[in-house]
Write a structure and sequence with these properties.
Order of helices and strands of chain A: EEEHEEHEHHHHEHEHEEH
Number of domains of chain A: 1
Number of helices of chain A: 9
CATH superfamily of chain A: P-loop containing nucleotide triphosphate hydrolases
Number of strands of chain A: 10
Shape of chain A: globular
Largest sheet of chain B: 2 strands, antiparallel
Shape of chain B: globular
CATH topology of chain A: Rossmann fold
Distance between the termini of chain A: 34 Å
Largest sheet of chain A: 6 strands, mixed
Chains: A alpha/beta (235), B mainly alpha (278), C alpha/beta (608)
Strand order of the largest sheet of chain B: 1-2
Strand content of chain B: under 5%
Helix content of chain A: 25-40%
CATH class of chain A: Alpha Beta
Strand content of chain A: 25-35%
Radius of gyration of chain B: 18 Å
Oligomer: heterotrimer
Largest interface: B-C, 37 and 37 residues
Structural class of chain A: alpha/beta
Order of helices and strands of chain B: HHHHEEHHHHHHH
Radius of gyration of chain A: 17 Å
CATH architecture of chain A: 3-Layer(aba) Sandwich
């Protein structure tokens, strides 16, 4: 693997006294797309929140391209180039599409470059810049989330179950966009997923999460990937 | 009829000026700044100082803004910051800060009543009725303030960040917005606005160390029924302020004095979100 | 099972404290009474005079402490009840003249008006769903209204200058000192006994977690209202004394400023300590009277600064600091007392019979028909239909956002659903609030362990039993009767050795177990468990699973379970209901669900 853009080592985390993530190690390489797969309640979202600095880290460390971010606050981590897409309430519904994107842009970012990125990936959004985000359809909102994350020049993308409730056609479009942008900018992506087809189409590598611990992993192109993931998340 | 109508409009305008700073702080920080009254008093004394130094009375207003802003910034840093997760304690602590402001003012001046030179005197005729020019100017100022704040919130990047923090602070942080800084700026601005309001009302009320308290309660009630929207605050100011004027006119000033508090309590009982439409 | 089969757990291994707290309090009260008796002989007339007023204020501060420090109701309006008592007295004496009968009548009128007013305030402030801030707002409006009414009374109430010059009970300052002092000591003692009693711990439980109390079948609105009324009466009595003693009443005593001054005294003394506010008020008011003359503004400024510092840095006030220092000192000189928690025994409750369903008469335990839930235009649940019988463990599974927790809420709180019917053991829950649903036989365990952190494990269990075994108002009974099911959980998870430990120091797993025991203590027929194994270790999961299957079998409980851990579901369920996007997509045996292609696709995300 190339030098990791995101490295998690020995991380334990959770809510109050409840430990949800236990002693977890994970590295995302430059230009690598990793899917973390697990059933509900296994700690997938907790892991992302903990990396982002929303939740306290009981032990272990997180670093981003040499920067230790274990003790950083969410806005500092975001400014270092981590774009986080939470599963719920990820958009400001009452703000316009343009405002939602602008909020994520920092200092040096130029609106022209951002516009170019949007035009390349999600041209329909350019017609809707003044529309309230809440009036977009479910699938369009997911596109806006991606547009927001891609247009800020992030180095790492953390995405929480973006495929939930999405049409298959939109999913395949999303797969194409994520891969293209990865090839363009060498973005590292950590996806939290339960959707097998999406996981198989988009990721390079998968990690199985079971009760806060990694219980398996593999290269997505391996022939037994479907069976392994299906066995992991079904009843 | 015309004077009552004018009273209604100008009273609503004055209430809007007095409450807008409190509303900003409540919207962003979800806490009630009970030092708002003390900061208004501070602004009132800024006007008194301008008069004492023989300055143009209008100078009192920026002076108040500076005093209020500096004191507000200090209060946020030293006290309010540690109480974000204890909203009821924040009410008490800011009330304590209000007492401190009041006592320092009493030590510097005294506990007696002071006067500030009004920026403008006299009346103008409206539909044949003479009416206080200053109250009409305040109405214009309230409109300007409302439009200015709305423009600042909608048109600037700090305003956008502020609105984002109001709507969903966690999400805003995740996008790289330093919500602590936004809170600090908001509290400073809200405090400055409180002091400006205090300076602006000096021609209408006597200046004494407790002048802010009565206004605090009205502003508090208006903010509670308005949520975090400047527009709802305008509606609430007109409805509750209007009711106060009408009740005072027809049933006496004593009943008028409790109109806003009683109506706000009843409105919140029936509709906990008050005038905000969410 | 009979009462004779008494099971005693806990207590025996722990050392008994040498002096019982009650005895100690009686010693303290006696010393205080002697102090009150002797003080006037050693003080100048001015100090005696001031202290009478200070002690009257201390009594209202005590009532504020009960409301704010124990019950969690931040009240700005206690001054209003004080003013009602004072003005009732002043008005009766001014317009009727003084007589012993009138003095007594004035007291009764003051209390009656204050209680009536408090009833109105409680009705507004403590309705189901009112926020703590709203309650505070109402108590803030109260003094404003009372002050305005006093102004509007014109010459009748003396308007802004108040009333003066009326004759009152002819007692010397010293006699007043004794009367007020004795009253204050008695009041404080009674309040102390009450707040330390089993029922008093309920106030803390309500402050910490009102929702949990409601779901334990307790009508918290009523409890808060009753306490509020009693505190109003204390305020009115203090007002009566004040008017009698000072012979002056003015509108300021009704006001918001005085109301907040009471809060300042309580905060400085130490909220939730009773002694702190009483002693704090006396010291501050007495010192004010002496210092205000020489350094009027500096004194108030200092109070303000200390107040802000205490709120920020010492939320529990100054008294706990003093007592900690005393304990530390005692530790240094080697007479440290062991930490004293109340000793508690668990007993097996004799079955009341009212919760046992005859085998012949049983229909389904839970019937859900056409239940819908909408938030605005968003439909979270629609057309939910199912039944569950006694002895069954039904698991609700489905992806995030499927509506599982919402369905639980609709079953446990009749006011939550938008449509459809739900009945528990044959009774329609209609629009009953949670505390009444508990009465019908619903017990609900929340997702995150939801216990009373600052209460001991034993006290948590007692509160859970409060609906069936009324709590003692005067003492710690030291006994908690538990039904066999709850007793089983307590014993199996080892909680019986933690009975006198505060719930907040329990491990996450034990907290979950404690909440389960609390729910079972309600003797429910239908138990709703929202993710009972979240955050538990493998061993703890297995234990909980075993306990649940046993309970379903032996106690014939109907258990409805929301669970993400599908292995757990497979091990313990008799039936599984799969929810997806607010609808039931499958309702069948574990095998049927495991082998269903539909369920696989729902979980794999390709079912769209």
């Amino acid at each position: 693997m190339t030098e990791p853009v995101l490295a998690v080592s020995g991380l334990s985390s959770g809510y109050g006294q409840a430990t949800v993530i236990r002693n977890l190690d994970l590295e995302i390489g430059r230009g690598e797309i990793v899917a973390m797969v697990g059933k509900n309640g296994m700690g997938k979202s907790t892991l992302l929140k903990s990396i982002m600095g929303y939740l306290p880290k009981f032990s272990g460390s997180v670093s981003m391209a040499q920067h230790a971010i274990s003790d950083s606050r969410p806005h500092q981590i975001a400014r270092l180039g981590v774009a986080y897409v939470p599963q719920e309430k990820a958009l400001f519904q009452d703000l316009t599409v343009e405002e939602n994107i602008c909020l994520a842009m920092r200092g040096s970012a130029s609106w022209d470059e951002t516009k170019a990125t949007i035009a390349r990936c999600f041209p329909f959004l350019l017609q809707r810049l003044q529309q309230k985000a809440g009036t977009l359809s479910g699938g369009e909102q997911k596109m806006l989330l991606m547009a927001r994350s891609l247009s800020v020049g992030a180095k790492v993308l953390l995405i929480d179950e973006i495929s939930e409730g999405m049409q298959p056609s939109i999913i395949s479009n999303l797969v194409k966009i994520i891969k293209t942008e990865r090839d363009r900018s060498g973005l590292g992506v950590l996806l939290v997923e339960q959707n097998i087809p999406f996981t198989r189409a988009v990721s390079d590598r998968y990690v199985l999460l079971d009760k806060g611990e990694i219980s398996g992993s593999g290269n997505t192109r391996d022939p037994d990937t479907h069976e392994k993931i299906a066995a992991h998340i079904s009843l | 009829m015309v004077p009552v109508l004018l009273d209604l409009i100008t009273t609503a305008a004055i209430l809007y000026i007095v409450s807008s700073g409190l509303l900003l702080v409540f919207g962003v920080m979800k806490l009630i700044n009970f030092a708002h009254g003390g900061l208004m008093t501070l602004g009132g004394y800024a006007a008194v100082m301008a008069t004492a130094m023989g300055l143009n009375p209008w100078i009192g207003i920026p002076l108040a803004a500076i005093f209020g802003g500096i004191v507000g910034l200090g209060m946020e840093r030293v006290v309010v910051r540690s109480l974000y997760n204890r909203p009821l304690d924040a009410i008490l602590a800011t009330w304590g800060l209000s007492i401190i402001i009041g006592q320092i003012i009493t030590l510097v001046f005294d506990r007696g009543v002071h006067f500030a030179e009004p920026p403008i005197r006299g009346v103008i005729n409206i539909l044949g009725e003479p009416y206080s020019t200053y109250r009409l100017i305040l109405t214009a100022l309230a409109l300007l303030l409302g439009l200015g704040l709305t423009a600042a919130l909608r048109g600037t990047s700090l305003g956008l960040s502020t609105r984002a923090v109001i709507m969903n602070e966690d999400l805003a942080r995740g996008l790289g917005i330093n919500s602590g800084l936004v809170r600090s700026i908001t509290f400073t601005l809200g405090s400055g606005l409180a002091a400006v309001a205090g300076a602006l009302i000096t021609p209408l009320s006597s200046v004494d160390p407790n002048m802010g308290v009565a206004w605090l309660i009205s502003a508090f009630m208006l903010v509670l029924v308005s949520g975090s929207s400047l527009f709802s605050l305008a509606v609430a100011s007109v409805v509750l302020g209007g009711a106060q004027v009408v009740v005072s006119n027809y049933f006496g000033s004593v009943l008028g004095g409790m109109t806003i508090a009683v109506l706000a309590a009843v409105i919140l009982r029936i509709r906990p979100q008050g005038f905000s439409y969410e | 099972m009979s009462n004779a089969n008494v099971n005693e757990l806990g207590s025996s291994s722990l050392q008994r404290p040498q002096v019982r707290p009650l005895t100690r309090m009686m010693i303290v009260a006696s010393i205080a009474l002697i102090g009150v008796g002797a003080a006037p002989f050693f003080m100048d007339a001015y100090s005696v005079n001031v202290l009478v007023r200070s002690m009257i204020y201390a009594a209202i501060a005590l009532s504020v402490d009960i409301l704010w420090g124990y019950l969690g109701v931040l009240t700005f309006g206690q001054s209003a009840f004080f003013a009602v008592g004072a003005y009732a007295t002043a008005l009766v004496f001014t317009y009727g003249g003084f007589s012993a009968e009138y003095a007594f009548a004035a007291l009764l009128i003051g209390i009656a008006v204050a209680v009536a007013l408090a009833g109105l305030v409680a009705f507004l402030a403590f309705w189901h769903g009112a926020s703590a801030l709203y309650a505070s707002v109402i108590t803030l409006v109260l003094p404003i209204i009372v002050t305005q009414l006093l102004f509007s009374g014109g010459t009748y109430t003396g308007s802004s200058s108040g009333l003066t010059g009326f004759d009152t009970i002819p007692l010397s300052s010293e006699a007043w000192f004794w009367a007020v002092g004795v009253w204050l000591v008695v009041l404080t003692t009674v309040a102390w006994m009450y707040t330390r009693s089993d029922a008093g711990r309920l106030l803390t439980a309500i402050r910490e977690n009102e929702q949990r109390c409601k779901y334990l079948g307790l009508n918290t609105s009523n409890i808060k209202a009753v306490i509020f009324l009693i505190c109003a009466a204390i305020g009115a009595i203090a007002g009566w004394m004040y008017a009698n003693y000072t012979m002056v009443v003015a509108p300021e005593i009704a006001g918001f400023t005085f109301g907040t001054e009471l809060l300042i005294w309580v905060a400085l003394g130490g909220r939730g300590t009773l002694f702190g506010p009483v002693i704090g008020t006396i010291i501050i008011d007495y010192a004010s009277a002496h210092l205000q003359g020489d350094f009027p503004f500096v004194w108030k400024l200092a109070i303000g600064i200390v107040f802000v510092s205490v709120i920020v840095a010492l939320p529990r006030g100054i008294l706990p600091l003093v007592s900690n220092a005393a304990n530390w000192l005692r530790g240094r000189i080697g007479i440290a007392q062991p930490q004293q928690y109340s000793q508690l025994q668990l007993r097996q409750a004799s079955r009341s019979g009212r919760n046992i369903i005859g085998f012949e008469s049983r229909g389904p335990a839970l019937v859900v028909r056409g239940v819908e839930k909408r938030f605005g235009s968003l439909e979270v649940l629609s057309g939910i239909d199912f039944e569950a019988t006694y002895g069954e463990i039904v698991s609700l599974v489905g992806p995030n956002g499927a509506g599982k927790t919402t369905l639980m809420t609709c079953i446990a709180d009749g006011s939550k659903r938008s449509g459809g019917r739900i009945s528990i053991a044959g009774h329609d829950i209609a629009h009953r609030p949670p505390e009444e649903c508990v009465r019908l036989g619903v017990g609900r365990k929340f997702q995150m362990a939801n216990v009373f952190d600052s209460l001991t494990v034993g006290e948590c269990l007692q509160i859970a039993r409060a609906r069936l075994d009324p709590l003692s108002k005067w003492q710690k009974s030291g006994v908690c009767n538990l039904p066999p099911s709850a007793m089983h959980v307590v014993r199996a998870t080892g909680l019986h050795s933690d009975l006198n430990v505060p719930a907040q120091v329990l491990s996450h797993g034990k907290k979950q177990a404690l909440e389960l025991a609390m729910v079972l203590a309600l003797e429910p027929k239908v138990v709703l468990l929202d993710e009972p194994t979240a955050g538990l270790t493998k061993a703890e999961r297995t234990l909980i699973g075993t306990i649940l299957t046993e309970l379903a079998r032996t106690e014939q409980l109907c258990i409805l379970l929301v669970e993400h851990d599908l292995d757990f579901v497979r091990e313990i369920s008799s039936r599984v209901i799969v929810l997806h996007q607010g609808r039931i997509v499958l309702n069948g045996s574990v095998d049927e669900v495991v082998n269903s292609e539909l369920v696989k696709s729902v979980y794999a995300g390709s079912g769209h």
